[in-house]
Amino acid sequence: MALLTVKNLTKKFGGLVAVHDMTFDIEPGEIVGLIGPNGAGKTTLFNLISGIVHADQGSLMLAGKSLIGMRPCHRSRAGIGRTFQVVRPFDMNVLENVMVPALTRTRDTSKARKAAMEVLEMMGLAEFATRSPGNLTLAQRKRIEVARALATQPKLLLLDEVLAGLNPTEVAENLPLIRQLRDTGVTILFIEHLMDAMMAVAERVLVMDQGALICCGTPREVTSDECVIKAYLGEEDPQC
């Protein structure tokens, strides 16, 4: 059984069709990339899956159970975790930032603290537990964002441009982390504009353009697809 099943998912904002008739599956344990030109609808798709916005039509299933009509908090409890493009940590220290989402899984603050520290250790942030996020680098703050999502114990983790703004060295240091997260049992769907990074990590890639899914395949298949090339170059092809 697929972990995530998306079928005919559509979202309109007035006359703009942000997501159009999207259909795809994600299997347990996959690392799936999501790419497309700016404005293609990638983040809107994440918002639909996480429940921040509601679909106009179509279905969303997580492990065979419908997500339609569920609030974001309930989807989180069901197993959807996500990060956001803009990192906005709470005005707390690093440990407390991760404890807040951990408390959605337990009312016991000592258990939440322990769970948060385990996540920080996994993310290489334990030494910064008592530090303010504002005193850390962008790469470290991005890791805090991922840690907060992991603290909700997701089955499916949605990563929205977690490598954006990082220098080449930081990108290289963070790429293995995506594989490590998958190896802990978390399935990953991630948005990324860095094609080299996508090619290095993703096992399968979904390509969106103007709200629609135009290609799905291995990174090599996708990067050689004519419709994908034309979408990024801004050219029209009647067959695409």
Question: What is the compact description of this entry?
Answer:
The protein contains nine helices and ten strands. It is an alpha/beta fold and 240 residues long.
Can you put this structure into words, describing what you see?
The chain is of the alpha/beta class. The protein folds into two domains: 144 residues, Rossmann fold (3-Layer(aba) Sandwich), CATH 3.40.50; 69 residues, no CATH class. Helices cover 37% and strands 25% of the residues. It contains nine helices and ten strands. Strands 6-7-8-3-9-10 form a six-stranded mixed β-sheet, sandwiched between helices. It has a four-stranded antiparallel β-sheet with strand order 2-1-4-5, covered by helices on one side. The longest helix is centred in the C-terminal third of the chain and has 16 residues. The two termini are 30 Å apart.
Topology at a glance:
Blueprint: E1 4-13, E2 16-26, E3 31-35, H1 42-50, E4 57-62, E5 65-66, H2 72-78, E6 80-82, H3 94-102, H4 109-122, H5 138-150, E7 156-160, H6 168-183, E8 187-191, H7 195-201, E9 204-209, E10 212-217, H8 219-223, H9 226-233
Helix pairs in contact: 3-4, 3-5
